[in-house]
Protein 1
Amino acid sequence: MSDQQQAPEIYKGLAGVPVDYTAVSKVNPDTNSLLYRGYPVQELAASATFEEVAYLLWHGELPDERQLAEFEEFERSQRGLDHEIKRVIDEIPLTAHPMDVVRTAVSVIGAIDPTTADDSREANLEKSVRLFAKLPSIVSYDQRRRHELDYVEPRGDLGYSANFLWQTFGELPELPVVSAFDVSMILYAEHSFNASTFTARVITSTLADLYSAVTGAIGALKGPLHGGANEAVMHTFDEIGPGEGGAERAVEWLDAALAEKRKIMGFGHRVYKNGDSRVPTMRDALERMVEYYDRPDLLELYTALETAMGERKNIKPNLDYPAGPVYHLMGFDTETFTPLFVASRVTGWTAHIMEQNAANALIRPLSVYNGPDERHVPEGR
Ligand SMILES: CC(=O)SCCNC(=O)CCNC(=O)[C@H](O)C(C)(C)COP(=O)(O)OP(=O)(O)OC[C@H]1O[C@@H](n2cnc3c(N)ncnc32)[C@H](O)[C@@H]1OP(=O)(O)O
Ligand SMILES: O=C([O-])CC(=O)C(=O)O
């Protein structure tokens, strides 16, 4: 670029750049609030089921009794896994990360669904419910095969969260566990233009199908700066080592990690700078699970690390920080945590895909070239 030309402003990472409207959710860092279609997420977590929240995200309104019954009937009828999907999962080596399994399974569902190319809202709604219904089967099937356990068929007499836990562990979970799991699904469901949702919207903007957009979004969610952080939080806890003296070790661990300029997973956020609106609700769920499983040492470590991070960096936890230990207590493998995030966020992704489709513009920003000036291939080369 010549000296005379003014350097254009670059918004690295699109930080602070509004790129479109959305009616799906509102993240307000000033009031530390999150609304799904206008409803505070804390109210939904306290009084709605994850199925109702999924319906709300897709349709814009909470379902009435009849609408919920119809939705649940269809959702429960879609929970099973086709032979083809199981076969493809079986082919994936156990060394693969569970996120790779989930990404591949969604891609296969797209490859075998005869309605994939139909991008009408009606067809896309059905595909969204299909993915919502099948993801618990996919995630639980993969966790179980890693322990050489057989697939557990879904149960049509159970709600979403009870069935997810049933399929994963093969036993009926108690109510407090179902309720904490359901709360986590509600809190993870939607968060405006985060990296994975934006990925889904970029893919949709090319008029590619819903499954392609969800497959791409899963790839974006895998990274530790985004959804992969809930898994990374548990690796931190393992490194520190819960149990007696965990709280003191947490402080020593943090000082050493910060001295090495490591990013502390589960802390910080692109939009919230004064704390994540969802953390208090998820922390309450963690407290309930710590009591249920009698693991006060985990909460001590959690609190010590949070306090020390606040004192040293003034950086607060994000949703992944309390979610990681909650899933650990429930018995999920650490590598399964981010697939659980997928199972929830598929609702938000697909709501955004349908919104993007309804008022589409190809997403294609500009870049500013800073490579070599024009040059020519030497003659005779
Ligand atoms: C559900 C979710 O996806 S929530 C996000 C989950 N991700 C994580 O938990 C990963 C850890 N956190 C992070 O890496 C970051 O906080 C992000 C990626 C989430 C947000 O990043 P950004 O908005 O780009 O903030 P940025 O990275 O510029 O941070 C600003 C400053 O705070 C520091 N900082 C931010 N988060 C952290 C952290 N977790 N650990 C240590 N330092 C941090 C940065 O190093 C930077 O310091 P500097 O100004 O001295 O360079
Ligand atoms: O909004 C973000 O950037 C990340 C996040 O918290 C989410 O996707 O839930």
Note: The mean pLDDT is 97.
Protein 2
Amino acid sequence: MKVLVIGAGNMGLTYGASIGQSGYLDKEDLMIYDKSTEVVEKLREKNNPNYEVYDDLEECLPISDIIFIAVKPYHNDALMEEMKPMMNDQQLAISIMAGVTIETIQAGLGIQKVVRAMPNLPAQVGKGMTSYLAAPEISRIELWMVEDLLNSTGKSVRVDSEKFIDASTGISGSGPAYVFYFMESMMEAARNMGFSDNDSKVLVSQTFEGAIELFNKNKLSPKGWMKRVASKGGTTQAALDSFDDNNVHNLIREAAYAAFNRAIELGKPEEEVELEK
Ligand SMILES: NC(=O)C1=CN([C@@H]2O[C@H](COP(=O)(O)OP(=O)(O)OC[C@H]3O[C@@H](n4cnc5c(N)ncnc54)[C@H](OP(=O)(O)O)[C@@H]3O)[C@@H](O)[C@H]2O)C=CC1
Ligand SMILES: O=C(O)[C@@H]1CCC=N1
């Protein structure tokens, strides 16, 4: 089996590294292609032991069995136009592009076997979360292969409609940035209180790490954990009351829906967009 990753950016290189390190494929069976000669040259200099690097689609696409599409959604039309004449109906495409629907990819590439997946950036450290949906034309055996490839970056969940791919974009796909937003705000508060940059970073990152580990080791809900931290009339309650007074809960919900709606928007012509409430 030969796997091609198109787009050597954040996510494409993540798949290259994760699939490569998983040991599923020999070096010559894992290929990365990018249209930028500068990117390709830099990658070739690094001489990664796990994959071959290509700058010519005609050399790598026709010999591929599974193709990851990891370019930005706005590059998709131009890419599919270039790919279509070289595709055959046995090939399987896995798109990780936000918003772009299975139907669009099937029509654009002239193939039926399409998987739409929404991973996230922690895939870079093997802690990724991916939701995915496969077109019905994909066989059970092909689906196992797809799952193995996706799971090389972390955990995955199979969903039964594209709505959930867009929804998971608003939760897990974009979610790491929400966490970093929260971290940035807490670090800024720490710096304002007089801590050094480094101490602010340690205070915040260890707090996040500890809280996640507690959460994962126990069935207690986040609300339950909040109660364990907050003493009646104490400091934590003062902070949680401040969150409530400023409606932070709703603001976070709105942000997640903004990403969800943007994913829907990216997948449809503007006049067809009907935003989720
Ligand atoms: N970043 C994230 O956390 C996540 C991203 N995604 C999705 O993954 C996709 C990729 O995102 P990301 O990796 O961040 O993007 P990047 O911009 O980092 O990577 C995309 C790469 O593809 C290249 N490219 C553009 N057009 C073509 C083409 N026609 N042929 C080959 N290569 C091409 C780009 O080159 P150039 O820069 O020169 O245009 C760039 O090197 C997006 O569709 C996004 O929605 C999904 C989940 C999480
Ligand atoms: O911001 C984006 O559009 C992509 C999809 C999810 C994460 N990054």
Note: Residues 6-12, 33-36, 39, 70-73, 75, 78-79, 96-98, 118-121, 173 surround NDP (ligand 1) (CB under 6 Å).
